[in-house]
Design goal:
alpha+beta, 4-stranded antiparallel sheet
Length: 189
C-alpha cells in the first residue's frame, strides 16, 4: 500500500511539474531609451511618455512605437501570430498596462504623436473622466479597438508639419543661410 501511495504521489508531482513548465510565458515591457528607440512603423523617436507602446514578440524581441496607431499598423502588416504581449502606457501615471486590460478614450481631435487620437487609461473611470474633461470623445475597450477605424487626422498632421517647418525657417541656421544668400535661387546676389 505504501508503494502505491508513493507512486501515486510521484505521478502527481511529475504532472504538476510538467504542467507548470508548459505554463504561459510572462512578458514584460522594456524601458524606453529616448536616445536610441525609434518607432518600428514611422521611424520617429519614441519618447518615454504616455503615448509609447510596445509589442514583445514570442521570441522576446521588443518592438516600440510612438503611438498606439503605429502599433496597430504593425499588427495589420504582420499579423498577431508572433505577438507574445502588447503594452500601452496609462495616460495619467505613465505606468505600463497590458493592452487587453486597458481602457481607451478616442476622438479624432485628441493630440497624439501620429494623430490617431487614441489614449490609454488604467481604468474605465479614468478614461471616462478624460472624455468628460475634454468635452468630447468615445470610450473604447481593446475589443472595441479591433473594429475601430484607424485613421490619421490629416488636418492635425498637416498643422504639426507646418509648425515644424515654421520653426525650422526661424532657426538661427536658416536665418544665417538666408543672409548668406542660400535658399534664394533665381534672385541676383
Amino acid at each position: 500500500m505504501k508503494m502505491k501511495s508513493f507512486n501515486a504521489m510521484l505521478l502527481v508531482m511529475v504532472i504538476v511539474l510538467l504542467t507548470s513548465a508548459c505554463g504561459a510565458k510572462e512578458y514584460k515591457p522594456q524601458e524606453i531609451n529616448e536616445e536610441t528607440d525609434k518607432c518600428v512603423i514611422c521611424n520617429m523617436a519614441v519618447k518615454d511618455d504616455p503615448y509609447a507602446t510596445q509589442i514583445i514578440t514570442k521570441d522576446g524581441q521588443s518592438l516600440k512605437f510612438d503611438d498606439i496607431g503605429c502599433m496597430n499598423e504593425w499588427k495589420v502588416q504582420n499579423g498577431t501570430e508572433t505577438v507574445g504581449a502588447e503594452f500601452v502606457r496609462d495616460h495619467n501615471s505613465g505606468n505600463w498596462l497590458k493592452y487587453e486590460t486597458a481602457y481607451y478614450a478616442y476622438d479624432a481631435e485628441y493630440v497624439t504623436p501620429m494623430a490617431y487620437g487614441v489614449i490609454a487609461f488604467e481604468s474605465q473611470a479614468a478614461a471616462q473622466a478624460y472624455i468628460t474633461e475634454q468635452g468630447k470623445g468615445e470610450l473604447l475597450s481593446s475589443a472595441d479597438l479591433k473594429n475601430h477605424k484607424w485613421e490619421v487626422n490629416r488636418d492635425m498632421m498637416d498643422m504639426e508639419n507646418m509648425e515644424m517647418h515654421n520653426e525650422s525657417m526661424h532657426s538661427d541656421d536658416s536665418k544665417e543661410e538666408m543672409e548668406m544668400g542660400h535658399g534664394t535661387e533665381g534672385k541676383d546676389s
